[in-house]
Amino acid sequence: MALIVLHKPEDELLAVRIKDLLEQSGIEAMLRSYQMSWFDGLAKMMRPEWGEVIVEEEDYPKARELLDGLLATLEAPDTPESQEPPEAPDKPEADGSGSPSDDTPSEPES
Q: Is the pTM of this model over 0.85?
């Protein structure tokens, strides 16, 4: 079976997320890292990608569809509704009369 590169993610977190998505959908995937831990960041300067997500050639169309859906979800901007804090409950408005309400005790007359 021939292997093919599906995606070159920017970081390991995205690579693992893609691999998990594919495996949950029944597609076997492998990760190949370009990183060299003993050079701490040098490989990242030479290649902007973290590494590769690799799948079997026959699984590529389904894997591509799943990946495109995941990337579209990750790149979608947040809606304004999700960024606004929830509204506070309305406070009861004063009647504006300046007189105490019926449920507050009144001062004794002298």
A: no
- The span from the CA of 90 to the CA of 105, in Å, is 26
Question: What is each CA distance from 54 to 14, 65, 76, 79, 106, in whole angstroms?
Answer: 14, 15, 25, 33, 80
Structural domain boundaries enclosing 32: 3-75
Count of residues in the chain? 110
pLDDT reading at 56 higher than 70: yes
∠74-24-50 over CA atoms, to 5°? 50
The CATH number of whichever domain residue 34 belongs to comes to 3.30.70
Angle between helices 60-75 and 12-24 (to 10 degrees): 130
